[in-house]
């Protein structure tokens, strides 16, 4: 079923779309068409969505139908709208242009490269003592085969205690340990989504999640996030669930990657209730839930509003601790965990016991480690914001109160070109289109603040230099894409 945006919803998204007054002002129809193209380019208006009828939009905008008719005609001529008599008009991009969302891994053998493509911290000093303690614990597991499909009991108990402490009572039987959060998502998709199934995701979203969905040949519907807080438009998000009735929805409500938005509690409750009503399973990615900044108080976990086993939560140790420790988990009902364990046989047998023991010790010391991480991230975020304000004041950034990334709105649709140019001066960037579908989001750039402050300031200086060089033109040089994580 094709999703449709109503006239009042599109009017709210368009905001102040009217042509500016002056001698060279554009006609209103051209300004309206340009505003719709801008929403498409930013990913706030999904591709393939049916626009309101001309009369309905004219009434919502309080303008003449003739103006809307002319705007729709211009959008069709520019390749941004496809229409069929009696069936309506659908959004599209010219020439069916598509940009792949997959991030490819390449070796990090250039020590002079400042890598802003990966949003992850270096290991904390507590990792080595945790590894030594884990090695001392290992002998008691050596008498068995070492296969624990749902994870060793110590780690499942530790993870369950964490959820319970957040107000979501959880037993170890509801936890399955995986080889990282991406592995957790892959297993959930194998169990819950048939090839070609319909999925709702945010736009922008995590590139590797989009890659996992592409591997399942999912039919993806998007909900466009605004760059400013709160990000999610409740009416549009709930409407997308009701209209498309997806089999599954993948959401990042806690410091969303890449925007850093935090979904408010009332919307979490509404999303869960609507998902139950339309038969949608929710996969909630909590990768960044341990990293609130500025004293931000977290809303209740999304799964705390679930009464019908519709919410599956995934998380892991990559963001608060270290990405090199490939430990993640799934929180679901006990029967779902058992079904996941059965599905896992086709992928791997179990997670490494030694790594799980390391995670047990890190989680035991989590209050100390995570507190230090928050202080570190706050200082690095503020250094990055100050450098951007000083060197690139035309860019707009909403200050995130958690997570590890900024979502910068650039001064033009230059994200991919800027990433290619920055590579030449030793900065690896994650351009906006990597976080969306079909070539949108060229006016945005994700900037993680996980590197030392001095590196972030240096990176912004190099980016600013090549940004201004872009205006003078030059020969494009192409490189292999790097990892986006």
Coarse morphology = globular
User: Quaternary status of these chains?
Assistant: single chain
For the biggest β-sheet, the strand order reads: 4-10-9-8-7-5-6
- Main sheet record: 7 strands, mixed
Q: Could you tell me how far the N terminus lies from the C terminus, measured between alpha carbons in angstroms? A: 32 Å
Q: How many helices does DSSP assign?
A: 15
Work out the radius of gyration. 23 Å
Mean of pLDDT: 89
Q: Beta-strand level of the residues, as a percent range?
A: 5-15%
How many beta-strand elements? 15
Low-confidence stretches: 96-109
Order of helices and strands: HHHHEEEHHEHEHEHEHEEEHHHEEHEEEH
Percent helix, as a range, is 25-40%
Structural class by helix and strand composition = alpha/beta
List the helices and strands and how they pair.
Blueprint: H1 7-14, H2 28-42, H3 54-61, H4 65-77, E1 81-84, E2 88-91, E3 114-115, H5 127-137, H6 153-165, E4 175-178, H7 181-192, E5 198-203, H8 207-215, E6 219-224, H9 234-244, E7 248-251, H10 265-278, E8 281-285, E9 311-316, E10 328-331, H11 334-344, H12 353-364, H13 366-391, E11 396-397, E12 405-409, H14 415-424, E13 427-428, E14 430-431, E15 444-448, H15 453-470
Parallel strand pairs: 3-13, 5-6, 5-7, 7-8, 8-9
Antiparallel strand pairs: 1-2, 4-10, 9-10, 11-12, 12-15, 14-15
Helix pairs in contact: 1-3, 2-4, 3-4, 5-12, 6-12, 7-8, 7-11, 9-10, 13-15, 14-15
What does this structure look like?
The protein is α/β, with parallel strands linked by helices. 39% of the residues lie in helices and 13% in strands. It has 15 helices and 15 strands. The chain has helices at residues 7-14, 28-42, 54-61, 65-77, 127-137, 153-165, 181-192, 207-215, 234-244, 265-278, 334-344, 353-364, 366-391, 415-424, 453-470, and strands at residues 81-84, 88-91, 114-115, 175-178, 198-203, 219-224, 248-251, 281-285, 311-316, 328-331, 396-397, 405-409, 427-428, 430-431, 444-448. The strands form four sheets. A seven-stranded mixed beta sheet has the order 4-10-9-8-7-5-6, sandwiched between helices. A four-stranded antiparallel beta sheet has the order 11-12-15-14. α7 packs across α11. The longest helix is centred in the C-terminal third of the chain and has 26 residues, at 366-391. The two termini are 32 Å apart.
């Amino acid at each position: 079923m094709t999703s449709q945006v109503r006239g009042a919803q599109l009017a709210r998204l368009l905001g102040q779309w009217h042509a500016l007054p002056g001698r060279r002002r554009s006609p209103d129809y051209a300004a309206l068409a340009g505003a719709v193209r801008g929403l498409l380019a930013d990913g706030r208006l999904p591709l393939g969505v049916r626009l309101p009828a001309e009369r309905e939009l004219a009434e919502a905008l309080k303008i003449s139908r003739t103006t809307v008719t002319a705007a729709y005609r211009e959008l069709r001529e520019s390749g941004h709208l496809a229409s069929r008599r009696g069936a309506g008009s659908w959004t599209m991009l010219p020439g069916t242009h598509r940009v792949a969302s997959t991030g490819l891994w390449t070796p990090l053998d250039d020590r002079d490269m400042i890598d802003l493509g990966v949003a992850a911290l270096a290991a904390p000093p507590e990792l080595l003592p945790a590894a030594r303690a884990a090695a001392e614990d290992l002998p008691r597991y050596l008498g068995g085969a070492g296969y624990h499909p749902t994870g060793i009991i110590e780690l499942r108990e530790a993870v369950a205690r964490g959820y319970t402490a957040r107000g979501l009572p959880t037993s170890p039987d509801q936890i399955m340990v995986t080889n990282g959060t991406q592995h957790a998502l892959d297993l959930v998709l194998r169990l819950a989504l048939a090839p070609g199934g319909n999925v709702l995701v945010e736009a922008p979203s995590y590139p590797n999640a989009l890659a996992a969905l592409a591997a399942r040949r999912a039919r993806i519907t998007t909900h466009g996030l605004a760059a400013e807080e709160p990000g999610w438009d409740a009416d549009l998000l709930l409407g997308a669930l009701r209209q498309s009735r997806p089999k599954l929805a993948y959401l990042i409500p806690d410091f969303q990657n890449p925007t850093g938005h935090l979904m408010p509690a009332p919307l979490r409750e509404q999303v869960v209730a609507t998902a139950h009503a339309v038969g949608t399973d929710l996969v909630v990615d909590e990768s960044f839930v341990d990293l609130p900044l500025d004293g931000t108080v977290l809303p209740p976990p999304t799964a705390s509003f679930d009464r019908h086993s519709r919410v599956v939560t995934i998380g892991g140790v990559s963001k608060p601790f270290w990405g090199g420790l490939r430990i993640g988990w799934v929180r679901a009902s006990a029967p779902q965990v058992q079904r996941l364990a059965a599905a896992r046989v086709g992928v791997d047998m179990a997670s490494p016991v030694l790594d799980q023991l390391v995670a047990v010790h890190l989680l035991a010391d989590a209050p100390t480690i995570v507190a230090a991480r928050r202080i570190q991230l706050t200082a690095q975020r503020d250094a990055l914001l100050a450098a951007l304000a000083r060197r690139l004041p035309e860019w707009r950034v909403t200050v995130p109160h958690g997570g590890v990334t900024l979502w910068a709105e650039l001064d033009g649709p230059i994200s991919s070109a800027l990433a290619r140019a920055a590579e030449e001066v030793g900065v690896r960037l994650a351009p906006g289109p990597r976080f969306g579908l079909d070539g949108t989001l060229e006016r945005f750039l994700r900037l993680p603040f996980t590197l030392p402050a001095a590196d972030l300031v240096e990176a912004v200086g190099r980016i600013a230099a090549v940004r201004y060089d872009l205006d003078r033109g030059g020969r494009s040089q192409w490189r292999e894409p790097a990892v986006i994580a």
